Amino acid sequence: MRKWIAVAAVLLAVAAGAAFLWLGGGEDGPRPAVFRGEPTTAHYAPIATRAADPDPLTAAEMFPTGSVTAGESTLASKGAETLTDCVPAVWGSAEAAVAGCTQALRAHYATPDGRVSGQFLIFNLADSAAADRLVAALKSGGFVRPAPGTPAGFDGSRSWAQARALGHYVTVSWVAPVGGAGRVDLTYPQVAMDSLSLVIQQRLVR
């Protein structure tokens, strides 16, 4: 009996360690199966530098409503946070790429049935060159960590993500099926999460 108790304790410790690594306690984390990265364009020249756009981001600005919708998909917010140290939000080569980042805002979302989990992040970098470097780092060698509250069944191996450099900002939208459910179409959930990037357009006309 004691032998089985000891074995069970070891298995629990291993499982806990694996969860710790997966959720961001280790050197790396899950990567999306499908990733698209976009560098900034001349459209965002008015906010190409933080000096030209000095007002800090706020959670109320970035997440004005409790949900996002696209097509037939609606994802409800499960919480948001603002980080003043951007390194804990990323891993790998992305850690070096967030040098000079002053803010990372992130929020966790989920569909009402819990079959899809998503998160949105925005990084406040020094300029558009730094933003492009972060997008490049997210494409290979590093990525963002799952946001607090991400369910254990978040299936990174089937997830989709998109990163955009928008002037001196970088946005990341990331969605995945949860658990071992069958085929899940992530098209509309991804569009819904990425729609939060549109908030930055308001900064162009300030």
Structural category: alpha+beta
The major beta sheet can be summarized as: 7 strands, mixed
Secondary-structure element order, N to C: HEHEEEHEEHEEEH
Helix content: 25-40%
Shape: globular
Strand line-up across the major sheet = 1-8-9-6-5-3-2
Q: Could you tell me how far the N terminus lies from the C terminus, measured between alpha carbons in angstroms?
A: 70 Å
What is the strand tally?
9
- CA-based gyration radius: 18 Å
Q: For the residues shown, what is the average pLDDT?
A: 88
Portion of residues in beta strands equals 25-35%
Low-confidence stretches: 1-26
Number of domains: 2
Number of helices: 5
Give a verbal description of the structure.
- The chain is an alpha+beta fold.
- It folds into 2 domains: 1-29; 31-205, no CATH class.
- The protein contains 5 helices and 9 strands; from the N terminus they run H-E-H-E-E-E-H-E-E-H-E-E-E-H.
- The chain has helices at 2-25, 59-62, 94-97, 128-139, 187-194; strands spanning 34-38, 67-70, 73-83, 90-92, 103-110, 116-124, 142-144, 160-166, 169-177.
- The protein has a 7-stranded mixed beta sheet with strand order 1-8-9-6-5-3-2. It has a two-stranded antiparallel sheet with strand order 4-7.
- Strand 2 (67-70) and strand 3 form a beta hairpin.
- It is globular.
- It starts with a helix and ends in a 12-residue tail after the last helix.
- The model is unreliable at 1-26 (pLDDT under 50).
- This is PknH-like extracellular domain-containing protein.
- It comes from Streptosporangium roseum (strain ATCC 12428 / DSM 43021 / JCM 3005 / KCTC 9067 / NCIMB 10171 / NRRL 2505 / NI 9100).
